[in-house]
Amino acid sequence: MRIRIAWAIVALIIVGAAVSAVFRVATAPDRIRDRRDHAKEVCLKAGGEWVVAEDRREACKRT
Questions:
Q1: Secondary structure class of 33 (helix, strand, coil)
Q2: pLDDT (tens digit, 0 to 9) for every residue of the chain, 63 residues total?
Q3: In which element (H, E) is residue 59 found?
């Protein structure tokens, strides 16, 4: 009986970890967009200019 309970607990932990990983991957684009928008806002407030470089990388150019 104890072995079944132990296996059930292990299975629940594995399922919980898998669900958590799927959630993190699914919400990643939103979190990336939020961080980029916040970085743009801080850059502009600090007197910088938000630019896109030749390799399509965005950066804050401080003057």
A1: helix
A2: 788 999 999 999 999 999 999 999 999 999 999 999 999 999 999 999 999 887 788 888 887
A3: strand 58-61
> Which residue in the block uniquely carries the two structure tokens 């928008």?
37
* pLDDT for position 34: 95
Rounded Cα distance between 9 and 42, Å, is 46
Query: Residue 45 — φ and ψ, nearest 5°?
Result: -70, -30
- Tokens for 31, please give them: 């979190």
Look at residue 60 and give its three-state secondary structure: strand
The whole-angstrom separation of Cα 18 and Cα 37 is 29
